[in-house]
From TrEMBL:
Protein's name according to its UniProt entry: Malate dehydrogenase
Keyword check for Isomerase: no
Active site: H189 (proton acceptor)
Top EC class for this record: oxidoreductase
One Gene Ontology term from the biological process aspect of the record: malate metabolic process
Keyword terms of this UniProt record: NAD, Oxidoreductase, Tricarboxylic acid cycle
EC id: 1.1.1.37
Binding site for substrate: R94, R100, N133, R164
Similarity annotation: Belongs to the LDH/MDH superfamily. MDH type 2 family.
HAMAP family the UniProt entry points to: Malate_dehydrog_2 (MF_01517)
Originating organism: Phenylobacterium kunshanense
Gene that this polypeptide is encoded by: mdh
Segments forming domain Lactate/malate dehydrogenase N-terminal: 6-148
Amino acid sequence: AKKPIRVAVTGAAGNIGYALLFRIASGQMLGADQPVILQLLEIPVEGPQKALKGVAMELEDCAFPLLQDMVLTGDADVAFKDANWCLLVGSKPRGPGMERADLLKDNGKIFIAQGQSIDKVAADDARVAVVGNPCNTNVMIAASQAKRLPADRFTAMVRLDENRGRAQLAQKAGVSINEVSDLFIYGNHSPTMFADYTHAKIGGKAAADVINDRAWLENDYLPTVGKRGAAIIEARGLSSAASAANALIDHVHDLVTPGAIHSVAVKSEGRYGFDPNVWAGMPVKTTAPGAYEVITSYEMDDFAKSKIKITNDELVSERDTVKDMLS
Ligand code: NAX
């Protein structure tokens, strides 16, 4: 039997947590023959801890054969102890009248503490995936605390945006989702992201030729993908949870599946014209379980470059806002 993989999840009693944990425990993230131990972190106050207990009771009631053990805690050092994957979902939502700068700084504090804890206690092969918003800046803050773990272990999630972008192209072209490929997300997980339809393919042909409506692509498609999160909140009265959990399952699954090509926010190192020190969405190819290389071969036209500049500028300004928090 395989050795269990320890998966730490923060914000485990939240909305995304509720849609995520059952899928991890059933084997959809790491494989149908891979035992897991869930190490679940919630803020150390009564309400969330009690809710976490309830979620754990339901996990027990599923009798998942792969779920070997669970740890429920309010202490980051316990949650991340020997963890192989650290899924950082929990963060503070933006309150009424709260400025974006305050949101960045409040959440920054969480990711300083969690970055330090992961670097101190997680497994040597630990990998980190940040979902909690603003996820690109939060992952940068967490990674800046790490002295032991290299920066390429820290990723943030833009996979929900990729999945949304593929679905919208398939719908417009009237084809099945499987026909849409090579659609990657560049930059920030925010409305400035660039869903690069210029290299996307539908049925193996250039998506822009198949759709043949540049105005729709520029003026409808991009804003629809970029603002989809807000549209879900408007319709549902709650933010995306099941689709976000699904995207995180895809993000990690593809990072442990050699050959998978997918959008991940990684430290840019200057690729595609991004500032070298921001975490930006871009295409990566998984080379070995947990290891990836950035695909750098896409040539951007002037339109794509102008879109990348906008989202890069936003990432740089987020970094400036939290610069005192970077270690
Ligand atoms: P919820 O508010 O339902 O759940 C968050 C949970 O995190 C709460 O239970 C809270 O108690 C807990 N928490 C807060 N601070 C914590 C800390 N320091 N340590 C441990 N737990 C902590 O939010 P949910 O809908 O689950 O969303 C979670 C995060 O995902 C939000 O920041 C949200 O903005 C972000 N999202 C990111 C997406 C992406 O594509 N990257 C898409 C979906 C989602 O909007």
